[in-house]
Design a protein that fits this description.
Shape: elongated
Number of strands: 9
Number of helices: 3
Structural class: alpha+beta
Helix content: 10-25%
Order of helices and strands: EEEEEEEEEHHH
CATH superfamily of one domain: Agglutinin-like protein, N-terminal domain, N2 subdomain
Length: about 190
């Protein structure tokens, strides 16, 4: 994270969100610009004809209205086939109440209305294949494991319990016991009664 002035900040996790608390000096009754720089893994969707960035700009769980919202997405130069649209509203809404301007590799989004309680803005940008190298299956598998490592806990527990059963829980190997329905030959009743 970088800011243009020295700002105190805290970073925490809240469910599936990363939450930043930033204190800006002199931010009372003024307009300040805060720039957050961060890296997101596995943020691009790959399709047969195009690649796509589908980005939730504001989030949709704010308990207050958002007066204005916008975004600027800058793609590398030389990009072709750029198409963009925006969705706004509550979770899952398909409203398109944002202005979208495409100028070469730059896409600008601006809401045409205020966002209400628990409403958000989502930006979608698509471009022709070849601009971004698609990750290999091995890389995608690694990203999946990194994001879903808790799913391995039951497998680990099963492996540990199977090992304990295999080492200590199985019955010992004994020769089979054969049932005899008649007394053995050449033995007296006193010998059999032991």
């Amino acid at each position: 994270m970088s800011t243009t002035s020295r700002s105190k900040y805290e970073s925490a996790r809240d469910r599936h969100y990363r939450v930043f608390k930033v204190w800006l000096p002199g931010a009372q009754d003024t307009t300040k610009t805060l720039i957050l720089t961060y890296k997101v893994l596995n943020g691009i969707k790959y399709f047969e004809e195009h690649d796509e960035l589908y980005w939730n700009v504001t989030g949709d769980e704010w308990d207050v209205p958002i007066e204005s919202a916008g975004a600027r997405i800058l793609l590398p130069s030389g990009v072709t086939g750029v198409k963009a649209l925006a969705f706004s509203g509550a979770y899952g809404a398909r409203e398109q109440q944002a202005e979208v301007h495409i100028t070469g590799p730059e896409i600008l989004y601006r809401m045409t209305r205020q966002l209400g309680f628990r409403e958000g803005l989502t930006a979608v940008v698509g471009w022709d294949k070849g601009l971004v190298t698609e990750p290999t299956s091995l890389k995608l598998t690694g990203l999946f494991i990194r994001s879903n490592w808790p799913l391995a806990i039951p497998i680990g527990v099963f492996g540990l319990m199977w090992r304990l059963w295999y080492v200590r829980g199985r019955d010992p190997h004994l020769r089979p016991i054969t049932v005899a329905y008649e007394p053995p030959a050449l033995l007296t009743p006193a010998e059999l009664g032991r």
